[in-house]
Amino acid sequence: MSKRVKRRSVKDKPIAQTLHTKRRLRERYGITLKVCEIRELAVRIKNPAKQPEESRPVFLARQSVRLTVWAVPFGGNRLILVYDGLRGTITTALPPGTGLRTPIVFKEETYGIRV
Question: Which of 68, 74, 84, 94 makes an SS bond possible with 80, Cβ 3.0 to 4.6 Å?
Answer without folding.
Answer: 94
